[in-house]
What we know:
By secondary structure, the chain is an alpha+beta fold.
Amino acid sequence: xxxxxxxxxxxxxxxxxxxxxxxxxxxxxxxxxxxxxxxxxxxxxxxxxxxxxxxxxxxxxxxxxxxxxxxxxxxxxxxxxxxxxxxxxxxxxxxxxxxxxxxxxxxxxxxxxxxxxxxxxxxxxxxxxxxxxxxxxxxxxxxxxxxxxxxxxxxxxxxxxxxxxxxxxxxxxxxxxxxxxxxxxxxxxxxxxxxx
Length: 196
């Protein structure tokens, strides 16, 4: 009976030894085949500036569709249309004189100013078949059509300024836009969305 007890004892310790040898082999293979972990920790970097800038590119077709939808949602006693043509921004409207509709067309040359606003220099102004003095007509239009606060007319300089940098996009006024390029001939319009 004592020899049978010793056999179980030898078998038990042999099994325990094999299990330890197997675990040691697995741990050794694990450490040998996996790379060493670098002792680097994540450190959050402070933003370089207080604003994030996203660049938006579009073309005349897309911007014309956006302008048309915005004008459609604008309440105005006088119907008007703004369209980007091959190389100009064109304003069209009409008003009634003695029961006749008289078309009004203003052609602007666009230019991006340093702060990102868009300056529209009046190139031609026509009322029906007549070309009229730009300064007086621009003064007339500014009193005739109610523009949003971000559109300013300067009749003496024959320009209209689109202050896109002052357009409020959200309630807390943390998102702004500014033009960087407005090239109608190349059909490339680029602006930045600035998130503060």
